[in-house]
Amino acid sequence: MIKKFIDKLLGKSAGGTQGASRFGKRQEVPAEVHKIDPALVDERAKNVVTTLQQAGYEAYVVGGAVRDLLLGLRPKDFDVATNATPEQVKSLFRRAFIIGRRFRIVHVVYGRGREHEVIEVSTFRAYMDNTAAEQVSGNERTSKGELASMKHAVDASGRVLRDNVWGPQEEDAARRDFTVNAMYYDPANQVVVDYHNGIKDAQKLTLRMIGDPATRYREDPVRIIRAIRFSAKLAALGFKMEAKTAAPLIESSKLLADVPQSRLFDEMLKLLQTGHAIATIEQLNKLGLARGIYPLLDVVVERADQPFVKAALQDTDRRVGEGKPVAPSFLLACVLWADVRDGWAQRQEGRHGQRAQPPFPALQDAIDDVFNSRIGDVSGRGKLAADMREIWMMQPRFDKRTGSTPYSLVEQARFRAAFDFMRLRADVGEVGEAIAEWWQEFSTADDVRRQDLLEQVREEQKVRQRVRVRETAQPPKAPAKPRGEPAMRLHDADASANSETEQDDELEVEAGAVPPDGEAVPRKRRRRRKPRPAGGGSGGGEGGGSAEGA
What is the DSSP secondary structure assignment for residue 429, as one 8-state letter? Predict the structure, then answer.
């Protein structure tokens, strides 16, 4: 009787299965079964785990890193879970920072600059019944004051706004999203702790939600985006989303309307910048979620088949696969370039009754319109916007390859991103291939070679100018002579020839005064004929010609 009473208090049924179904059954899987290669575990993650364990806390590598290790992959990111509180974790490391309000976690930082590595440490969380949570009527933004003192709070729809109640490991596993992401690995004794058959699902290549999928999506609608991201990432390995996990996705996607735009923007970037952008587009179309998740993501999906955008997505996947850094500003600049380019042309030409604008003001106004219509206030300001603007504003400057412009351009902080952008434009035929190759060589050449490249451009311009002059300065055909008019005298013909030669020289200089790329050159003075004394000289002087013709 006493045992039954205790089981009832703990939420267990007579058969003892209810508790097991909620929190799962702890399984400790040894190295000879899971076969994880310890060499694939990052040394900094090991250091974090060891430091916590030596301080008397439980600590494990957790989440997607364990999944990747089971699949024989080297994880790009390592997360650690522990029973130490954020304040306790922070006290153990020299460079550790507590971040977040919704979920308080610690970032332990190793290294500096671009080479730095962040190990994310989270505290085991309790499995909380949302019906017992504190409830607010608004969202994360409108209820910020109320939420400040709350540890577990939900809004009217059941979405979790705060989840900072600490608990045991089995409850922490139950509140994670997918079974393959809910395993814990101890690199010290090489044991995997599994509560929800994640190892079996990994072997069966199945992506399955822990608990009731519709309820879990309602608790946090961003899990919908995470489901898309993981299915895209794992599709290449043969993973398929379980039917029950996929079924509520479309209906639940309406809940994303209540998620803060800044969080959706960040999740969109994760979809596009984790090395599986092309696969993500395919999954969105396959799952019927090509539209409605986030307006800017709708634009990406819509334009994914356009050569320029497709090339940018493929380039991003390639760089991530090679371990190179990627910037959201570059990819978004590529996606929205068509809007900028069309608006720029429209303003220069003065379409739709607008007054024509000079090139650079027209480009600036076109960029402003794109930020207002496509990005808005969420990320339309700050570093992201500044980087995108700089990439776009540099594009006309690549046409100018004389004087000091090339030297100043290659010194710009965003030159490499702007050049890569122009390189993609050349790949799809929007810019001449020769220009892209010239800038590639100039950016890496020494001073002597750079002077040669500049001289090469000057010679090409001279050739083009001479061709233009010949085409535009052809002398008109002489009208037919009236019958009986005397033939032109020799010195008249010479004077006419000299005059045409001088005119050709003058036209060449005038046409060359402002080359196509805008580099101004000094004008030459027009040659003037010196008058000769009347009646003097042989061969028919220029002055004599005009006297006789009078």
Answer: T
3-state secondary structure 248-286: CHHHHHHHHHHCCHHHHHHHHHHHHHCCCHHHHHHHHHH
Model pLDDT for residues 417-433, shown as the tens digit of each residue:
999 999 999 999 999 99
171 in Cβ contact with 127 (< 8 Å): yes
77 is catalytic: yes
Residue 154: pLDDT over 80: no
242 vs 283: CA distance, rounded Å: 14
Assigned token pair, 293: 């998740």
pLDDT of res. 152: 62
pLDDT of residue 495: 40
455-464 pLDDT tens trace? 999 998 888 8
Alpha helix stretches (DSSP H) within 130-259? 144-147, 169-174, 198-204, 213-219, 222-235, 243-246, 249-252
**Beta bridge mates, 191:** 186
Quote the tokens at residue 455: 């001289």
Q: How far apart are CA 330 and CA 499, in angstroms?
A: 56
CA distance to 374, 384, 398, 435, per residue, from 389 (Å):
14, 9, 15, 22
Q: Report the C-alpha gap between 38 and 31 in whole angstroms.
A: 10
Mean pLDDT within 48-56: 97
Q: Distance of CA 44 to CAs 21, 78, 109, 411, 443, Å?
A: 35, 9, 9, 35, 37
- Residues contacting 449, CB < 8 A, separation 6+: 441
Report d(CA 354, CA 344) in Å as an integer: 12
Catalytic residue among 42, 177, 220, 317: 177
Degrees to nearest 5, angle at CA 169 with 163 and 174:
65
CA pair distance 396, 407, nearest whole angstrom: 15
Query: Bridge-partner residues for 106, per DSSP?
Result: 98, 121
Structure confidence at residue 143 (pLDDT): 57
**Cβ-count burial 72-97 (b if 16+ within 10 Å, e if not):** eeebeebbbbbbbbbebbbebbeebe
Locus of tokens 């037919």: 480
Cα radius of gyration (the chain): 36
- CA–CA separation, 366 and 344 (whole Å): 5
Question: Which strands sit side by side in the sheet containing 134-135, from one edge to the other?
Answer: 134-135, 152-154, 160-163
Q: What length does the chain have?
A: 550
User: Catalytic: which of 42, 68, 79, 194?
Assistant: 79
What CA–CA distance (Å, rounded) separates 550 from 532?
16
Residue linked to tokens 């794109």: 370
Q: Where are the alpha helices (H) located in 350-432, listed in sequence order?
A: 359-370, 382-394, 405-410, 415-427
pLDDT bracket for residue 16 (50, 70, 90): very low
